[in-house]
Design a protein that fits this description.
Mean pLDDT: 95
Helix content: 25-40%
Radius of gyration: 20 Å
Strand content: 25-35%
Largest sheet: 9 strands, mixed
Bound molecules: NADPH dihydro-nicotinamide-adenine-dinucleotide phosphate
Shape: globular
Low-confidence stretches: 1-13
C-alpha cells in the first residue's frame, strides 16, 4: 500500500509521527539508529535504503517495514517518507542530503557534515530553498554530561576559561571506509574523531576559533597509506584562549576533554561515546568531585528533538551551520598540516549553541545483532 506523502508545509497540520527512511545500513545504522525509533514518541521508521539485498531483507523483516529500497530507488524512497536519516560514509552525505531536500524531505545527516565547506554550503542552501529542516547528528548536544559541562564552564565556577585539551583515539580496523577514502573524500581521523574535540572546544568556549596550526604523523603502519594516522592541532580562540585537539586511528582508545579555567578544571572521560556511561570530574582548588552519567539512547533523543523541530517549524540546533563550522576547522587543520603554516579562519556567523534546555534522556536499549556490518575499530 502506498501512503500519502506529507510535504514539509502540510506536515505541521497533521501532527502525526514523522516517517523516516534510514539511508545506509552499516555499523552505526544497525547498532544505534534503527533501534532508536522505537524509543521515540514522535518518529517512526518507515523505510530503509541499502546496497545490500540481505540487509534489506533481514532488517526489513526485523523492523516490520513495508518499504525497502536500493540506492537506485532513492527517489522512490523519498516519496514514502517525511525525513531521512543519512548514515552513509562522509563522501556521500552531500549528494543524499541535497536530493532529499529537493524532494521536500527533511534531513538528519551524520557528522561530519560533508568533505568540504562548498558541499556544506550547498546542503544548507538546498534545505533553505526547499523549506525543509536540516540537522547534523551531534548527539552530544542533547546528552546530559556534555550539557552539564557547558553549564559548569559558563557558570564561572572554573574561573576564567583559559584552555581546552581534547583527545579522541582508537585503533581503526583495516579496510574500513575511514581509512580507504582519502582526506579529500572525508577519510582520516580529523573528519571522523577530531570533529568531536573541535565541537566540544567550540561549545565549551562558546566561540569560533580564529586560526589553526596542526601536524599530522604516521608511524608506517600499512593502514595509513591513504590517510594520516594521527593529527594534533592548536586552535586559537578569541580572548587569548587555546584548544589543543588530538585524534588518532592508530592508538588505544582515549575519549577525553578537559576545560581548564583560572580556578578549576573539568575533565570528561569517557567524553564522546554512546553505549556506555559517561563520566566527569571537577577539581576546584583541593576539592575533586566525580560524577557518572547513566547510559541513555542518545540517538532516540536527537531523532525526537529533530521531529519536534519539524512539527513546530523550528530551526534545529545543531543546524547545517554547526556542521559547516566544524568542517571549516577540519579543512584548515589539514591545510596547516600539509603546508606547515598557520591557517587564518576569518569570521563566522554567531548561531545558537547547545544548552541544558536541549537535554533529552531516553532509556538505553540492548545491543542488537548485526547483519554484514563490522565495528570501525580493531
Ligand atoms: P560503516 O562503514 O559501518 O557503514 C557505512 C554504510 O554505508 C555501509 O555499510 C553501506 O551500507 C553504505 N555505503 C554506501 N556506499 C558505500 C561506499 N561507497 N563505501 C562504504 N559504504 C557504503 O560506517 P559507520 O556506520 O560507522 O558510519 C557511517 C556514518 O556515521 C559516517 O558518516 C560516520 O562518521 C558516522 N558515525 C557517527 C557516529 C556517531 O556517534 N554519531 C558513530 C559512528 C559513525 P549498505 O551495505 O547498507 O549499502
Amino acid at each position: 500500500m502506498t501512503r500519502k506523502s506529507y510535504g514539509p508545509k502540510t506536515f505541521l497540520a497533521n501532527n502525526k509521527k514523522l516517517r523516516y527512511a534510514v539511508v545506509g545500513l552499516g555499523h552505526l545504522a544497525q547498532v544505534a539508529v534503527l533501534p532508536a525509533f522505537a524509543n521515540t514518541r514522535n518518529s517512526e521508521l518507515t523505510a530503509i535504503v541499502s546496497g545490500d539485498e540481505t540487509k534489506l531483507k533481514k532488517l526489513g523483516k526485523k523492523y516490520k517495514l513495508e518499504h525497502t529500497f536500493r540506492y537506485g530507488e532513492y527517489d522512490s524512497a523519498l516519496k514514502e517518507v517525511d525525513a531521512v536519516y543519512i548514515v552513509l560514509p562522509n563522501h556521500l552525505h552531500h549528494e543524499y542530503t541535497v536530493r532529499a531536500a529537493a524532494a521536500g524531505v527533511h534531513v538528519i545527516c551524520e557528522k561530519p557534515m560533508a568533505d568540504n565547506e562548498k558541499e556544506c554550503k550547498a546542503m544548507i542552501e538546498a534545505a533553505a530553498k526547499n523549506n525543509v529542516k536540516l540537522m547534523i547528528a551531534y548527539r552530544l548536544h542533547f546528552e546530559e554530561s556534555n550539557l552539564e559541562a557547558i553549564q559548569k564552564a559558563q557558570s564561572g565556577k572554573l574561573g576564567e576559561l583559559r584552555f581546552f585539551e581534547g583527545t579522541f583515539s582508537e585503533q581503526a580496523a583495516a579496510g574500513n571506509v575511514r581509512l580507504t577514502e582519502s582526506v579529500a573524500r572525508g577519510g582520516g581521523p580529523v573528519f571522523d574523531m577530531g570533529v568531536y574535540c573541535i565541537n566540544a572546544a567550540r561549545y565549551l568556549f562558546r566561540a569560533e576559533p580564529t586560526s589553526v596550526t596542526a601536524f599530522s604523523a604516521s608511524g608506517g603502519d600499512k593502514r595509513f597509506t591513504k590517510v594520516d594516522e594521527m593529527t594534533s592541532a592548536i586552535l586559537r580562540f578569541p580572548g587569548e584562549r587555546l584548544a589543543n585537539v588530538n585524534c588518532s586511528f592508530g592508538a588505544t582508545e582515549v575519549s577525553r576533554y578537559s576545560i581548564v579555567g583560572t580556578n578549576g578544571t573539568l575533565t570528561a572521560e569517557p567524553a564522546y561515546n554512546y553505549g556506555f556511561p559517561l563520566k566527569q570530574k571537577i577539581t576546584i582548588g583541593t576539592k575533586t568531585r566525580s560524577k557518572t552519567f547513566r547510559k541513555t539512547d542518545q540517538f532516540a533523543a536527537q531523532i525526537m528533538y529533530f521531529s519536534d523541530c519539524v512539527q513546530r517549524n523550528r530551526e534545529p540546533e545543531p543546524s547545517g551551520w554547526e556542521g559547516l563550522a566544524d568542517v571549516r576547522v577540519v579543512t584548515a587543520i589539514y591545510e596547516s598540516a600539509r603546508t606547515g603554516k598557520r591557517v587564518e579562519l576569518g569570521s563566522f556567523p554567531e548561531r545558537p549553541r547547545p544548552g541544558m534546555s536541549q537535554k533529552i534522556s531516553r532509556p538505553a536499549h540492548r545491543k542488537p545483532s548485526l547483519i554484514k556490518a563490522e565495528a570501525p575499530t580493531e
